[in-house]
Amino acid sequence: MSKLDGIVDSVVVPHSSPEVHRLVGTGLRRGFRKAVAESAVAQPGSITAQLLDDLPVALIVSGYSTTVTDAQVREQPNLDRIGVCMGWRRGGTVDLELAQSGTIPIPHGPVVPALEDQDAAASHRVPSLDHHAVRRVRRTDVIRDIRGWRVDASFRDSHTDGTGTETVIHEYDLRAIVDSATDEIVEAIATPRVLPYLECPVAAAAAQNIIGIPASDARRTIPSLISGTASCTHLNDLLRTLADVPALGRHLS
Helix, strand, or coil here: 112? Predict the structure, then answer.
């Protein structure tokens, strides 16, 4: 868990080891993933590693709740973020709105589908969100394929407003093939479902940049392969999960 300032004050994970306590006091906004990778906190591909890897972006997503309920927050210009991704590119929706009104445009996505409308085999029942809370749901399915491992992955960030209505903030799907003999990513197709700004879906084409790299190196190499206005923070996070495919694939007969 972390405080609002992004500093980790406690960590409780499955099969916790003494190493995990070394993360207390580190910041989620910068360097946390590197600290996890350089420690013996979790084995690559483990549930613990996946949970810890999601914490920095979870902090970012949690800011949506404050942004939509606090007018003072909306007045913060965040000019240092211009150019960080496709949605915040210079001359784009966010940049133009900041120049005109000094505020960040607040996206409002579609209502989250009912649980019975989703794949029951790939989902588990979760409690309803409290008002003004956010949630990230992730899924990574690995299936043996004639070409190696076929990957079907997705994630969804959602928010519940003051009336209890849960809407989607971000949602992406990913289809990929990983050569099980060489660990090489041979196919990657990202499909944006819900994103906040008009420009955001263009970044999906950058998934082609990772073809040919070892899946197990995805977390290390993707930040340098897909960056700046060719990138999407949420796309990059989804592509990073391909690093877990070799570990998951070893569980297949």
Answer: coil
- pTM for the structure as a whole: 0.82
Can you list the residues of the chain whose pLDDT is less than 70? Answer: 1-5, 14-18, 40-45, 65-79, 115-123, 253
Which 8-state DSSP code applies to residue 2?
B
- Kind and range of the H or E run holding 218: helix 218-225
Q: Which two tokens stand for residue 17?
A: 């080891």
Instruction: For residue 146, report the phi and psi dihedrals to the nearest 5 degrees.
Output: -60, -25
Q: Are strands 134-145 and 166-178 parallel, antiparallel or unpaired?
A: unpaired
Using the structure block, give the residue that is written with the tokens 């060489």.
182
Strands 134-145 and 185-194: unpaired
Per-residue pLDDT at 3:
45
- Please report which helix (H) or strand (E) contains residue 71, including its range: helix 71-74
What digits encode the pLDDT tens for the residues 59-112?
A: 877 777 666 655 444 445 556 778 888 988 999 888 898 888 888 888 888 998
Are the CB atoms for 151 and 140 separated by under 8 Å? yes
46 CB contacts (<8 Å, ≥6 apart)?
247
Two tokens at 162? 């003051």
DSSP 140: E
Q: What is residue 113's three-state secondary structure?
A: coil
Instruction: Compute φ and ψ for 176, nearest 5 degrees.
Output: -150, 160
Considering Cα of 110, then 68, then 233, then 13, what sign does the dihedral take? negative
Spatial separation of the C-alpha atoms in residues 212 and 152, rounded to whole Å: 18
